[in-house]
Amino acid sequence: MMKIEFNYRENEDLRRSFNELAEKVFGLNFENWYKNGFWKDNYIPYSVIEDGKVVSNVSVNVCNMNYGGRVVKLIQLGTIMTDPDYRGKGYSRILMERVISDYKDKVDGIYLFANDSVLDFYPRFGFKTGKEYQYSKDVDNTGEDRTVLVPMADKEAWDKMVRLITEKEQNSRFYMVENTGLYMFYLSQFMQENTFYIENCDSYAVAEIEDDTLILHTIIGKGDVDKVISAFGSKIKKVVLNFTPNATYGFEENELHEDDTTLFVMGKFFEEIKDERLMFQAITHA
Description:
alpha+beta
């Protein structure tokens, strides 16, 4: 018999079954994230259970955003998956209807990132495709690399980063707040060698370097973007931002098109900002 369960992270059997399905569908496992204390109340799986087993899921991520100094209440849907053996039963539709019913009148907007195989699915629930804009520029840095790598390899480093994300502003017009767990999903696992301290502006940069290109994911602190970029030294010739900085002067702006990824949105906030040139931080995608 089918039933829906949600917010069951302390149920060991269901959490194990959820992880087994996530491994099967996405190659992901949330157990270390849970054990390290980052699975908080703002990550809420809604799952169809059959015979004690998670067979379909839509997860709610409470992703409130600082937008120009005010906090906007948003949720991001993610980990949307169904066991191949249980597809065709309408379980994803049932879960989407339940989640939207539970949240649409409580938040300012709902969003998700979909792959190309399901682009005709989400409009059935009132979602519209959204646009994002990315900023980049060529640079002519001089001097040595003055950044200090801050490895995210243990609990002491993670706890410090959680405090920084909680207490410091970010140099961004649009960034996630009150959900350190989603940042740490990336920083504590896949991006342990991607946090750098820049002393002259007392800020932290989350960044990747590919050849002579700096991919800057966020600036934690009030550090000027150009000062942060220059701190990476003369090896950097191009910068790509995976967030929207407070000041965009001097950057080239382009509508973002990612392979197999489409943004879907609904709600009054997204109507309000439909003409804005913004980007969700890449390290907060669920």
